[in-house]
Write a structure and sequence with these properties.
Blueprint (H helix, E strand, L loop, with lengths): L21 H17 L5 E2 L2 E2 L4 E2 L4 H6 L5 E2 L2 E7 L11 H9 L5 E5 L7 H6 L7 E4 L4 H10 L3 E7 L9 H14 L2 E7 L11 E8 L2 E9 L5 E6 L3 H6 L21
Parallel strand pairs: 5-9, 5-10, 6-7, 6-8, 8-9
Antiparallel strand pairs: 1-2, 3-4, 10-11, 11-12
Amino acid sequence: MAAPSTGVSSNPESSGPALPGADLAHASAERPALDRLLEHPAIWRGRSVAQIATLPTGFRALDESLPGKGWPRAGLVEILISHLGLGELYLFLPVLAALTRHASARWCAWISPPFEPYAPALAAHGVVLERVFVARASTPLWAFEQSLTSGACDAVLGWAAKKTRGPRARDIRRLQLAAERGRTLGVMFRPLRAAQEPSSAVLRMMVEPLQQGARVTLLKSRGGHRGAIDLTWASPQAARSHAEYSPTHSPVTQSPQAFGSL
């Protein structure tokens, strides 16, 4: 004779009424994993942004407009310019100085710059020259990507040739991923026409010259602000007294304005 059913199964795998608070405990256990996922820099949530590591730019007004209050510690920044020498390198001298002075500093690489970097100007702005190297490559885009992903560089600067088509959208995506893998600040200087092309870079901005500084327009900023920011250099005299590039190596012109005056 079969025993009367009690309504309670002795099989631990069988489904039954959930214990009070079990679902809540399960959800609480999953929450930290979800939070860690949402902190990944590749996750973009509309006007909000995942927590990302940043480096101060050295310009308070610019920091206030950027997500995380600075340059991305690991990511690609696109700087769009009409021509060289607008003060575009001046934007990065404070962070290059900070990175090269760090006790555990890695390299700051310049990949096929259009002019010869002017060492006295870099040193005058606090950049430690022993942590800077310049690479001349027949395939600059490949060298740029390899430097980003190597893990040996804190920052990598590259230039897209104005007379060529330049990197495609898939190339920019690859460079962004390489910067994330290498935990490197990548900076790509590109012609203004690139603004019409899609980009996976974490940050894209246009730089225009002003009488005593530059106007920076944020075109793409994950979680930051959009719009123009006017930055003022220390003084016109200081700006003219330092050159980012050596004029003796200019392949374009002998005009001092084209040598990237700081």
